[in-house]
């Protein structure tokens, strides 16, 4: 999976951290998640502890969007067999299916290709009725991939606002409030299109707190936000918007445009939500990998947010406390965290939150007993073609500090980390359950993971 593992895992500690990262991503892979949570037996669809009688439906349709939506749908098609009638998925990682149509879109910025797939999804939902079972897939990356601008807004204008939002430093839930109100499909609007069909919304969660209304901007979930909220967010972050966008939001605020459907709306009467995977899936698998190697592992939090560079300082302060006072954990120990940090960019940059996390940590790290790895589980960190990075006390030496600090200040983390052979490359992983951070703290005796570790194994990609 980590394609450059052999070259970047040049110490036992780094290789161990990379093993934990791989374990987390593997556990969150759609094929594994579907196998663990979805099955069909005697014409009954089982999703976790819920049952759906397939004989009650004339049509079974699969629709959705996200980085992992293609692979989730492929696994669902295998489970359903000839029960499946039709389907359409928008993803940046399309796979081959017999019945479900795959539309290649783009992420993190939308493209016109996304619109073609969304139009097909809408057509399928418009044809649904009370005897239709809609299996919806909502996954990380779906907010960009599920793009159909509100009437009155051009596609290029939507893309420009999206780019400004992503550079603003706003948390994803606020970004998606704006996205919902510039869209014809987000914020529960696909649930309205599907009504009165039964909808089984399968959510692969990539947001803090597993908020189904934020994942893919909640196309099948109730929305409690408003046009007024969207305007307030744009103003607070001083986000430039084209006149057409401002006009739509102002018309919505005045009540001239229909609001996104809220919880009390009838369109949600037959919508059932299932979070089939999340950041905790990856965290628990990474913890299991560490403990199987004889190293205690602790989950610090699955809900880390804020500026990536500041989050790194906090994580490093915990690691230093472990070494100095043996609190709150006894070394050797692995500290794990998930969530989604951000990077506020004023001009331009090349990198992503996980690389910036690692570069900030490396600048402040001077203890050889600490190794830090951080990745975006979808394999794409920010605007770079890498998943994240792995660092130790040798990544930024005394002579490197001026250059490292300049790269961090300019948000050019990829350039510096690549020069130090510290970027983690996976390519598209087929999943997206947010960020995964692994911090391995040895004790002063230099305890290492048990000998049956990956030190004697080749990386899966080889």
TrEMBL record:
Residues 333-435 form the MOFRL domain. GO terms for cellular component: cytoplasm. InterPro entries: GK-like_C_sf (IPR037035), GK_N_sf (IPR038614), MOFRL (IPR007835), MOFRL_assoc_dom (IPR025286), MOFRL_protein (IPR039760). Residues 18-250 form the MOFRL-associated domain. PANTHER family: GLYCERATE KINASE. This is Hydroxypyruvate reductase. It comes from Haloferax profundi. Residues 445-454 have a biased composition (Polar residues).
């Amino acid at each position: 999976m980590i394609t450059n593992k052999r070259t970047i895992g040049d110490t036992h500690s780094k290789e161990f951290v990379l093993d934990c990262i791989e374990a987390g991503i593997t556990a969150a892979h759609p094929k594994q998640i579907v196998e663990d949570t979805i099955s069909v037996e005697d014409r009954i669809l089982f999703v976790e502890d819920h049952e759906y009688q397939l004989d009650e439906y004339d049509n079974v349709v699969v629709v959705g969007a996200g980085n992992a939506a293609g692979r989730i749908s492929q696994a669902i098609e295998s489970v359903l067999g000839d029960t499946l009638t039709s389907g359409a998925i928008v993803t940046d990682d399309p796979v081959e299916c017999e019945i479900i149509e795959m539309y290649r879109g783009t992420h993190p910025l939308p493209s016109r290709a996304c619109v073609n797939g969304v139009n097909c999804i809408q057509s399928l939902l418009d044809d649904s009725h009370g005897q239709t079972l809609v299996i919806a897939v909502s996954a990380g990356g779906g907010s960009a991939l599920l793009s159909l601008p509100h009437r009155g807004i051009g596609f290029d204008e939507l893309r420009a606002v999206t780019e400004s939002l992503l550079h603003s430093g706003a948390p994803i839930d606020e970004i998606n409030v704006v996205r919902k109100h510039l869209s014809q499909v987000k914020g529960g609007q696909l649930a309205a299109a599907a009504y009165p069909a039964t909808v089984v919304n399968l959510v692969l969660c990539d947001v803090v707190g597993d908020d189904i209304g934020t994942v893919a901007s909640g196309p099948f979930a109730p929305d409690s936000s408003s046009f007024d909220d969207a305007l307030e967010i744009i103003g607070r972050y001083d986000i430039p918007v084209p006149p057409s966008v401002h006009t739509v939001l102002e018309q919505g605020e005045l009540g001239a445009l229909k609001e996104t459907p809220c919880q009390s709306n009838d369109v949600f009467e037959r919508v059932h939500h299932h979070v089939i995977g999340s950041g905790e899936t990856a965290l628990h698998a990474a913890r299991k990998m560490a403990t199987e190697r004889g190293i205690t592992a602790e989950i610090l939090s699955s809900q880390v947010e804020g500026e990536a560079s500041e989050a790194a300082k906090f994580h490093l302060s915990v690691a230093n406390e472990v070494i100095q006072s043996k609190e709150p954990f006894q070394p050797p120990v692995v500290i794990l965290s998930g969530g989604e940090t951000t990077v506020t960019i004023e001009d331009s940059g090349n990198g992503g939150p996980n690389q910036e996390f690692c570069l900030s940590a490396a600048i402040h790290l001077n203890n050889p007993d600490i190794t830090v790895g951080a990745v975006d589980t979808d394999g794409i960190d920010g605007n770079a073609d890498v998943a994240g990075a792995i660092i130790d006390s040798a990544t930024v030496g005394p002579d490197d500090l001026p250059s490292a600090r300049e790269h961090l200040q300019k948000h050019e983390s990829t350039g510096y980390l690549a020069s130090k052979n510290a970027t983690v490359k996976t390519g598209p992983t087929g999943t997206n359950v947010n960020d995964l951070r692994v911090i391995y703290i040895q004790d002063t005796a230099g305890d290492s993971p048990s000998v049956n570790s990956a030190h004697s194994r080749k990386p899966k990609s080889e």
